[in-house]
Every structure is written in structure tokens, then in C-alpha cells.
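W.,

You were right to be curious about this one. When I first looked at the sequence I had no strong expectations either way, so I just let the prediction run and decided to look at it fresh. Below is the sequence, 270 residues in total, followed by the output.
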Amino acid sequence: MILTVNHVTIYDYDAPMRSSVQSLRLFASRHDGQRVIDWDVAVQGGVLGGAFRDGAGDRIEGWSVRGPLEQLRITVRGRVETADTAGMLRGHRETINPLAYLRETALTHDDGTLSALAAKGVTGKEEPLEQAHRLCRLTADEVEYQSGETEARTTASEALHRKKGVCQDQAHVLITMARALDVPARYVTGYLFGEGEGERDEASHAWAELFVENYGWVGFDPANRCCPDARYIRIGSGLDAQDAAPIRGIAQGMGEERMKVSVALESVQQ
């Protein structure tokens, strides 16, 4: 499948800002299930600074914009050829030891309920891959997909108590339960081309990857009860949503910031 992406993020300020500095992790990953045909990230009026690929294999660029600045516009346009690898991440070059992804963060803190749920849902007799699938199904069963019930700083434990959340919350719940069973897990950002009835068609999307014995990193999307396939474009990963954030930055000045995001994802070839 060939997918096109047109992603625009706009920050408006109610008073001119002196400058802005942005760190962008907005580049499509390169692996066996994903071939980048063309991809461009631009910051209107910005100057590209340093660029590097981190230990997780994600490309990161630094941009700066001089003021006076009333609006900041970041655009992503690209084409990617994708293939279904049953969620398995192969051919992705990275150097971080998977054991690093056992570390807890503020968003994936376990208050005891998540580890208890994981122990209840997994008997310990399953093969590692089946265990991962069980955790994904358990997440989808326990946390209903519903927008407006949580916020960016909602933790995995809070989402489980509320029994509702969005893809970010479901990914955090799955990650936390996996880590409770000593399975390395990480948060993944990307895009989803929704074409099936009942699917969570968010365009911008998030899911989890678990490091499964004998298979390596495997993706699981509780929001759609599946492993990522050819409809998904993988961007980057981290310990949680904050660590994997595609855009991080700061603007200097006294103005209040308002953000607007537009994402269009199309299939140009099946």
C-alpha cells in the first residue's frame, strides 16, 4: 500500500513572541514493512539546526525561528510504501538495549492495580507471543475507547480506574502491564489510514510495541484490537507519550499559545 501524509501543526500567539526553538521527531521510520518514497518536514520561516538519529533509530531535527512571531507552522508531507509484517518490526536499526524499556515513568506508574490485572489476565503458561496478545485484548476490554475522558497527563493507572480513554491511554495501560511482567514495552507514534467500519480513524495515532521472546519488537494496537499492518505508518518511539512526542519546543515571549492540528492520510495505491 502507498500512503500519503499531509500533516500541519499551527501555533497561534495572542502577542508576538521573540523566538521559538523546536525539536521534531516527525520522520517516517525505515524498516522492512515501510519504505519511504519521499518525506519532507518544514518549519515556516525556520532555520534548520542540528539533526541526528537517536539510539532508538528515530531521526530528530532541531529548528529555530526568530520573531516577532505571531504564528508558527510546521508541515509534514510524504509518501510511504507499507507492507503487512503482522506487527513485527524487522530491519529497523537501533542500538538501545530492550531492557531499558522496563523503566517506569510518571505516565506509566503502576499503583498496584495494573500489575494485579496483568497477573489475573496472564496465567504464565502461554507462549510469549500469546501472552502479549492477551495483554492487548485485556487492555481493550478494560479501557473503552472514548475521547474527552482523559487528558495529556492522565496516567495509566488513572485511565484504568476511569475505564475510558483514547489510544494514548490504552497504549500506556498495555505498556505498564507488560513491564509488570518483565516484558520490555514502549510507546509508538505514527499515522493510521482507517478504511474499515468501526475502526478508530484518528490519522494521528499511537500504539505500543512489546519485546517478545524469539520475535523481537512487535506492535499492538488496543484501540483497534490488532497488530499494526499496512495501514499504519510508524514515526517514533519512547518510554511513554511524553518521551516519544513528535513535537517538542519552547517559544520566548508573553503571548498565550493556541494549537491547531490538521492531518490528512490517503491511500494512492493498494
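Here's what jumped out at me. The radius of gyration is 19 Å. And, maybe more interesting for your project: Residues 197-201 have pLDDT under 50 and may be disordered.

Coffee later to discuss?

I.
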